[in-house]
Amino acid sequence: MKRFVQGDSRTQSFLLPEALDDYVTDTNPVRVVDVFVDELDLLQLGFEGVEPALTGRPSYHPEVMLKIYIYGYLNRIQSSRRLEREAQRNIELMWLTGRLAPDFKTIARFRKDNGKAIRNVCRQFVMLCQRLDLFADALVAIDGSKFKAVNHRDRNFTSAKLERRMQDIEESIGRYLLAMDTADRQEPTIAKARTERLRDKIAALKEQMRSLKEIEVRLNAAPDRQVSLTDPDARSMKTRGTGVVGYNVQTAVDTKHHLIVAHEVTNNGIDRDQLTSMAKLARTEMGVDKLTAVADRGYYKSEEMLACHEAGITVFVPKTVTSSATAHGRFSRDDFIYDPQANEYRCPAGERLIWRFSTVERGLKLSKYWSSNCQQCALKENCTPGPQRRVARWEHETVLEAMQTRLDHAPEMMRIRRQTVEHPFGTIKAWMGATHFLTRTIERVSTEMSLHVLAYNMKRVIKLLGMSAVMEAMRA
């Protein structure tokens, strides 16, 4: 081994052994975790066990357990069993906890029993970002992404899936019965062996059918007609390509520094009803009076646009194209120009579509317009297959038109949305690995997501401001 860098002998003794602090550099992120948790008021945040019990075995202080979890999620170690091993061999974690090494059950129980308090810790870091003036632009991008739950597809049932499963079992039983008839015509020794094997298969299928009948009763009683056996709160959701059984995580991300200012875990696979609640939550977390939010077309819903307008939140959401006329190559609704003074529309042929009556559809008050000259129009084939082309107008249509005008004058908003809100989801999913969430039920999953968001934001702020500035702000 000559002319190579030489290491120390494993059996060498030292008169003055090195301290743990010598192994943790001043620029190690673990020091930020230590300062952050030390400055928290754990009792006010709602942690259990802050005050020690007068009797019984001494417990670990919540401060130690919280440091273990934040360190674990910063370093892509989410499992309680893995955290137990790391506490026994990881020098950084030994430094952080003072060589304490709780067992995995204690670690897991802390996360289970202090879910709300851990979520409050995530909010505390967002408030720190607010004090550091990192949300000055008051512009956020809102999006949702599907995360897999601890529930396999085969243990999630909808009415259609249950019906298909029962039909498959009935067909399999029919095939086995025919096979038994065929086996009866074989030699007695062969027939006996085949018949016994087929009877066992049929008995197993009948047991599966009995279980499916029990699930059908639960399915009919469920409000959303869906049952998950492993994680009762997980739901089957559509994604690009194949579906996923999991949760729909909503986030609002600051467009300047790409910090997650607000997040929420839902088991509703559709984003259309989430815009107002997420925008209001982001505004509260950022501590601003006025907020601008941008989202993709999956959030377009007339009632949500109106709610944001009434709340003083400016939104940019592209309109969804659902018109059958556009799909068949005919004039779209945008080809009809509204005249607010005359309260009428002008069609591509120059004809006037006047107001006829008002009605209520799906809870929305609509006015209907059409012209009496459609039958003689030369452009009728390009307009409508019916007697006349009718146009409906919502009573708050001006709100939608104002938003479309804003979007036409700021087309870069969609590019800003895409480059802001997409990569945090990709980063967090990469940290999670293939399994995504490790816990069950929406409350515990929300706690787990808060730890991921806290770790993500902490890394971003350290990257933006540097270690010294972050720790100084935490101590201030």
Can you walk me through this structure?
By secondary structure, the protein is an alpha+beta fold. The chain folds into four domains: 94 residues, no CATH class; 147 residues, Nucleotidyltransferase, domain 5 (2-Layer Sandwich), CATH 3.30.420; 76 residues; 58 residues, no CATH class. Helices cover 47% and strands 15% of the residues. It is built from 16 helices and 13 strands. Strands 1, 4, 5, 6, 7 and 8 form a six-stranded mixed sheet that branches. A five-stranded antiparallel sheet has the order 9-10-11-12-13, with no helix packed on it. The protein starts with 29 loop residues before the first helix and ends with a helix. 29% of the residues are buried.
Q: Order of SSEs, N→C?
A: HHHHHHHEEHHEEEEHEHEHEEEEEHHHH
The CATH architecture of the largest domain can be named as: 2-Layer Sandwich
Please report the distance between the alpha carbons of the first and last residues. Answer: 52 Å
Most strands sheet: 6 strands, mixed
CATH topology heading of the largest domain: Nucleotidyltransferase, domain 5
CATH class of the largest domain: Alpha Beta
Radius of gyration: 31 Å
Q: What are the key terms here?
A:
alpha+beta, 5-stranded antiparallel beta sheet, 6-stranded mixed beta sheet, single chain, 13 strands, Nucleotidyltransferase, domain 5, 476 residues, 15% strand
